[in-house]
Amino acid sequence: MIPKHDEDFYGWAVHTAQLLRDRKMNEVDFDGIIEELEEMGSSNENQLINRLGILISHLLKWQFQHELAGHSWKCTIKEQRNKIKRLINKNPSLKPKIDEALNDGYMDGVILASKDTGFPENHFPKQCPYTFEQVIKDDFYPQ
Fold first, then answer.
1. Which of 4, 6, 15, 91 is spaced 20 to 30 Å from 140 by Cα?
2. pTM assigned to the model
3. Model confidence pLDDT, tens digit, residues 18-39
4. CA distance 86 to 108
């Protein structure tokens, strides 16, 4: 029996890849392929939002609790910047989504920063005080 993509993704993917190799187009689950490709695209966008959230939370902590800033914060900031740059370089079609991702990431970043600092969420600006260019700039650390 041919596995369904939403019941056994691995089995479905292996089977579908073989059908494509064999050029058995009449047996290929094109709707499943389309759905999975759309989900892959969404996954990259979600990864950008998640990484921005982590990065922004550390930038907020750096700005609002600078006296506690340490090596691990700096390493996390650097790591997330590198991963964001790599993600965008490998997926340049994410560029039009950057402003939306920055806003969504900021909302998540505020929640994380609030949790880590003990400050209420309304302690932080309502809108992201940083531009995307600042956020990914290697030497940007807010004061």
1. 91
2. 0.82
3. 999 999 999 989 998 898 888 8
4. 21
